[in-house]
Write a structure and sequence with these properties.
- It contains four helices and seven strands, in the order βαβαββααβββ.
- The chain is of the alpha/beta class.
- A hairpin with a 5-residue loop joins strand 3 (about 65-70) and strand 4.
Amino acid sequence: MTHHLELTRKSESELPEISKQLLSFAKDTKVWIFNGQLGVGKTTLIKALAQQIGVLENMSSPSFSIINEYTTANNATVYHLDLYRLKNLQEAIDVGIEDYLFSGLYCFIEWPEIIEDILPEKHMALELKIQDFTERTIKASRYE
């Protein structure tokens, strides 16, 4: 079963509220994939989501490390993965992607195309699109 939600972000100041709405919509879904062109705001949205779930650390894009790990105020772990530099599914498996996907912990994944065949059935898919300089649309789909 799939559920859908569409939101519009007119400025970055709306991200805390949008993050709350997305987390509420997600229920207990922990694996989130983010699709959208370079510069659309995937990392910015992930930072806002992480802040809402209690990450206190300053987050950065894991472009070079592929996986960044953060801890929330409640000592929970949050993973932020950027798969842009991986060439194929085997490379993702070699870095242990399945351990993250099935950890039961939050996994926010940018550039997820190469792992779509091994995603858990239960996940969130977000499609971000640029409308103009500051406005973005966010289409969220929750798969169960």
